[in-house]
Amino acid sequence: MAEVLKGKLDQLPLIDILKMLSSNGRSGRLDLSQGRIQGEIYLKKGSLVHAATGAQIGERAVYTMMGWLNGDFSFTPDVEPPEESVELATEQIMLEAARKNEEWKNIKKMVPNSDVVFKLSPAGSPETVSLEPEEWQVLAQVNGKRSIEGLSKILGRDEFKIAKILYSLTKAGLLEVGEEREKQYVKGLSEDFFEELTQEFTDILGPLGPVIIEDEIHDLGGTRENFPHPRGAELIERLSEEIEEEEKKARFQKVMLEALKKDS
Amino acid sequence: MEEGLREILAVSEVEGCLLFDNQGRLLRSEGAISHNQHEWDEAGEVLVQTLATLESGSKKFSDLDIIFMDKRLVMRDLEKVILVVICDPELDIALLRLTLNVVINRWKGNSKVQRFFNDHHTQRRDGERIFG
Asked: What stretches of chain B show up as alpha helix (H) in DSSP?
């Protein structure tokens, strides 16, 4: 089934894509991704009928994806939704999304994407601050390492809501913007590691081994030259799934875990 | 066996690992977690009950991964004992799973560890009986 619309969210925001698809009465699946996170929105004759990203479904998933400032999208027409999770009318969702979008414009000056991390401000607020319970819950989970995505997962709220609270806590002087999570992942896997990986995997799977490795690296959004070390275990785990014999799988995991540790 | 538990503990963001018997009694623990045996026995009992209840639906659960508030609990059912890892929800879960696989596979071939598991092997509690 051919994709008819494909692009980058920083060039065409989700709200504009949905407006376009909805006003044209389109049916199909809109696939979205922001880094490792993926999501999908289904439309039926221009109406939003189902949305899902991670554990979130329905309107909440739409609002979360509306907050994705970077990433890719592609629309595949005439794909049937697996279920119908959106209850609100599409116009109502678009209205709410437009309102959130306006708020996002202010928030994104401070929070350009959901990989940003926050830390407690050592100076603190110059004034007495009173916090709402949900603000306190967010503040209690900020540790200088957790991203908006991570906080959203722990607290079970959409990323927009978390970003909004972080924005107000930062404005109040309680928090500071830290480094972006991806920027902390500077080290890549070495060529030696890839050589060992290729050798081990090819020994088990034969000449298809290197091809599968390249496919998995590509699916994880990287290349051999810039594959982040912290995702090495994920790569090994995915490759292990290709090995049917339990004994060979166990040996591969053992050898590659050692290689990963040696490489760090 | 302690070496394996320490290897799991060495994974970044893992706070503790514990071994329970099939009745939920704490057998071994490593890491920066409470050393109150009674507290863990109670937690282990809840864990075994949960596992048994889940399994009363005729599906076997050898893995559980639960995120609650600011902690993540990863459980592996090793049949004779239950291994529980307590960690930060944002840890590299693939690295933890890989480490668990390697350690558990090593334990399978270690007679001393197997003897320990056999010595502490008790019948798994029945979920329906516990809650029924």
From this structure: 2-9, 37-55, 93-108, 111-119, 127-131
